[in-house]
Write a structure and sequence with these properties.
The chain is of the alpha/beta class and about 425 residues long. About 45% of the residues lie in helices and about 15% in strands. The N and C termini lie far apart (about 60 Å). The structure holds pyridoxal-5'-phosphate.
């Protein structure tokens, strides 16, 4: 039975409007929504004047006369017009099919909403705090290091997390059957950094009858490659810092979810905890959206080619990339994703020492790319998850997840495949000299 008051109403709407047999919005429509009709101005203000006392009181009640978001015209911690533009565009990219279906059915109540936060972690932590309470339990897949450490911190508030491999649907089923206090399932797919794929549709069929919200972190895929609402997800999160921004110029995150959850639960946590994005960062992310589809196409095309070449390289032990037929969930990735993504992980023969030499090679100013964390930028990033993005994961869990000391993660950028391959090939040669 659901522990969440809004869940049953949402499930009924989800079945009518959100789940679809088509997996993706057409590339053309995606491009035109992302480009929009031009970016708004940057409303660099912290507060907004009211016309009179009644107008101010109405806005606090969430009443707006001219259709704009009332909370985006009070005080920027509650919302801002530049951020509102970004929220609308992001929401359309993931959910235009829901809007279309609800309008066609003459549905009057809003079904879904979005909220931009000052970081991906802000989006994840606020969503979690809005979903769980002391005594609840969480099921969490293989996730980014800070997400993992956030869920571990929640133990202090009597919230236990079951860390499992959600790519194993049977294990998700068993964990849910054995733990009736689970109030949220959280997963990344593809996951960070080993690129395992979880079956969103199959897992949603396990969570839905139990009244448990399924939260998907879609950062690696973006809505261009994967549209989790169509597959049955209940809440979708993205770190906008990555592919949406696309140029490593800001930090932000977004939550998209059922309207009632967003307005009655998430918004209260958000306004009181205060992870507010700056208007300028929202504007930068709006700009990033205009080219997201093109950058994803290019990054994926380069990643496919690099993964194929890396897999044949004599110094490479194994390559984790969902676009390779050797990837254990290759068929699922083909069903669930438009393209296999721009992230690759690889293990080098003899592990740690050559991996460090390869990364040090990319730290040089004379080579393309950088030795840096983050991902989804125009520039290619190389990094070492065990000592960087996933350093906070306890060693035993890290190794169980395949995050070995020899694992290198590459976020493939836009430099061009031949430029990147020439550098990687040379870096590998030097790593073994
Ligand atoms: C998959 C994933 N989710 C969430 C985050 C957190 O995002 P942010 O750094 O914007 O807080 C990251 C950051 O690397 C990530 O890789």
């Amino acid at each position: 039975m659901s522990v969440h008051s809004w869940f049953a109403g949402w499930v009924e709407r989800k079945e009518r409007y959100a789940r679809t047999s088509e997996k993706f919005m057409s590339a053309d429509r995606f491009g035109s929504i992302g480009v929009g009709i031009g970016l708004p101005s940057i409303v660099q203000k912290s507060t907004f004047s009211f016309r009179n006392v009644k107008d101010g009181a109405d806005r606090f009640l969430g009443v707006s006369k001219s259709g704009e978001k009332p909370f985006a015209r009070i005080y920027t911690r509650l919302g801002n017009p530049t951020t509102e533009y970004l929220e609308k565009a992001l929401f359309q990219l993931d959910c235009q099919h829901i809007i279309d279906a609800a309008l066609a059915a003459d549905e009057r109540k809003p079904t879904i909403a979005s909220l931009v936060c000052s970081s991906g972690m802000g989006a994840i932590s606020c969503t979690t705090l809005a979903l769980v309470q002391s005594g609840d339990e969480i099921v969490c897949g293989n996730v980014y290091g800070c997400t993992d450490s956030f869920f571990r911190t929640l133990a202090k508030f009597n919230i236990k997390t079951h860390f499992i491999d959600t790519a194993d649907t049977a294990l998700v089923k068993k964990t849910l059957e054995e733990n009736p206090k689970v109030a949220m399932v959280f997963l990344e797919t593809p996951d960070n950094p080993t690129l395992c794929i979880s079956d969103i549709e199959a897992i949603s069929k396990l969570t839905q009858p139990r009244g448990i919200p399924l939260v998907v972190d879609n950062t690696f895929a973006t809505p261009y490659l994967q549209q989790p609402f169509r597959l049955g997800a209940d809440i979708v999160i993205q770190s906008l810092t990555k592919y949406v921004n696309g140029h490593s110029t800001s930090v932000a995150g977004v939550v998209i979810g059922p309207y009632e959850f967003m307005s009655d639960h998430l918004f209260h946590i958000y306004k009181d905890f205060g992870p507010t994005p700056s208007p300028f960062d929202s504007w930068l992310n709006g700009q990033g959206l205009q080219t997201l589809h093109l950058r994803m196409e290019r990054a994926c095309a380069s990643a496919v080619e690099l993964a194929l070449r890396l897999e044949k390289h004599p110094k490479v032990e194994c390559v984790h990339y969902p676009g390779l037929p050797s990837h254990p969930q290759h068929d699922l990735a083909k069903r669930q994703m438009r393209l296999p993504g721009g992230m690759i992980a690889l293990e080098l023969k003899d592990g740690y020492a050559p991996a460090c030499r390869l990364m040090d090679y990319f730290a040089s100013y004379t080579t393309p790319g950088e030795l840096a964390v983050s991902l989804g930028s125009a520039i290619t990033y190389f990094q070492h998850p065990a000592s960087m993005t996933h350093a906070a994961v306890p060693e035993a869990d890290r190794l169980k997840r395949g995050i070995t000391d020899g694992l290198v993660r590459i976020s493939v950028g836009l430099e061009g495949v031949e430029t990147l391959w020439a550098a990687i090939d040379e870096g590998l040669r030097l790593a073994y000299n």
